């Protein structure tokens, strides 16, 4: 059942992105930035937490979860260190994704040549 | 005249059909990646015997690695051109933006090429993610106390 929910949630998020992409002049960069902001905004009232429980991996894969994880790490540290904690914990949960993307991209760029 | 009417008709109907087809492709590909993500989490939890939040991180790294590797080999661009938002909205789009920028600007050198261009597209995701999470974080911290 969790697979069906994953499919529906991730599919719907991507379909919304495609509808925005087709009907406006926004580019890929605009859409991904917009979705990160939406993910963070949904966390003000803990809505995204409930979506992650409902859809599992399907809610973690779209870029909206990036905003959600930024916010979560920041708030976790903010409980301990007040406002200063927001900056301390901001990258706590997203660090693995960002750092692996940087390292992998760097070494692949050294190994591979552009196709065109 | 008939030809003109025909082309008008075609123009009227073409983009509409393409849009529906695009949305369907994005839904199916995006949903497929969601299922793949959940599948990877389950595999990691069962085979490596690790807690779920660690498995989530491994799943994200796996998807980033696959997307970056396919971009480097050269056929991920075609996938993105076909599936559009289905591959751009998931974390694969983030990895694709970063690795394609790194590979494309490789010829301009390590510093002025890779160094200054790797965040060209992915940087906006990080920038607006951080700024919005900070602002919303303050709002939530003030209103709900964390």
| CA gyration radius of chain A, whole angstroms | 16 Å
* SSE order of chain A, one letter for each helix or strand: HHHHHHH
How many discrete domains of chain A?
A: 1
Pick out the low-confidence regions of chain B. none
Strand content of chain B: under 5%
- Which overall shape of chain A is indicated by the principal axes computed on the Cα atoms? globular
Q: How many helices of chain A?
A: 7
Distance between the termini of chain A: 43 Å
- Biggest pleated sheet of chain B: none
Give a count of the beta strands of chain A, DSSP E runs of length 2 or more.
Answer: 0
Largest sheet of chain A: none
Oligomeric state of the chains? heterodimer
> Helix proportion of residues of chain B, in percent?
over 70%
Query: What is the rounded distance between the termini of chain B?
Result: 68 Å
Spans of chain A with pLDDT under 50 lasting ≥5 residues? none
Strand residue percentage of chain A? under 5%
Q: Give me the count of strands of chain B.
A: 0
What's the number of structural domains of chain B? 1
What would the average pLDDT of chain B be, to the nearest integer? 90
Quick structural overview:
Chain A has 116 residues and is an all-alpha fold.
Write the layout of secondary structure elements.
The complex is a heterodimer of chains A (116) and B (146).
Chain A: H1 2-23, H2 28-42, H3 47-55, H4 57-60, H5 64-81, H6 83-89, H7 95-111
Chain B: H1 2-47, H2 52-73, H3 76-83, H4 85-88, H5 91-104, H6 110-117, H7 122-144
Helix pairs in contact in B: 1-2, 2-5, 5-6
């Amino acid at each position: 059942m969790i697979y069906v929910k994953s499919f529906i949630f991730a599919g719907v998020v991507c379909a919304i992105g495609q509808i925005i992409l087709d009907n406006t002049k926004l580019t890929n960069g605009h859409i991904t930035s917009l979705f990160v902001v939406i993910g963070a905004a949904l966390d003000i009232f803990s809505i995204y937490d409930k979506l992650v429980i409902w859809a599992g991996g399907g809610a973690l894969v779209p870029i909206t979860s990036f905003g959600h994880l930024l916010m979560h790490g920041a708030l976790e540290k903010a409980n301990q260190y007040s406002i200063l904690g927001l900056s301390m914990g901001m990258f706590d949960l997203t660090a693995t994704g960002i750092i692996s993307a940087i390292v992998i991209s760097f070494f692949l760029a050294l190994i591979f040549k552009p196709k065109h | 005249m008939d030809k003109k009417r025909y082309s008008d008709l075609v123009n009227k109907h073409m983009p509409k059909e393409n849009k529906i087809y695009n949305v369907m492709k994005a839904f199916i590909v995006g949903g497929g990646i969601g299922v793949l993500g959940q599948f990877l989490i389950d595999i990691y939890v069962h085979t490596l015997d690790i807690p779920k939040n660690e498995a989530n991180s491994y799943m994200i790294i796996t998807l980033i690695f696959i997307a970056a590797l396919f971009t480097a080999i050269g056929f991920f661009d075609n996938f993105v051109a076909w599936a559009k938002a289905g591959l751009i909205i998931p974390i694969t789009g983030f990895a694709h933006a970063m690795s394609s920028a790194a590979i494309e600007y490789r010829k301009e050198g390590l510093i002025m090429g890779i160094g200054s261009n790797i965040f060209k597209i992915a940087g906006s995701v990080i920038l607006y993610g951080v700024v919005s999470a900070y602002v919303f974080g303050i709002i939530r911290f003030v209103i709900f106390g964390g």
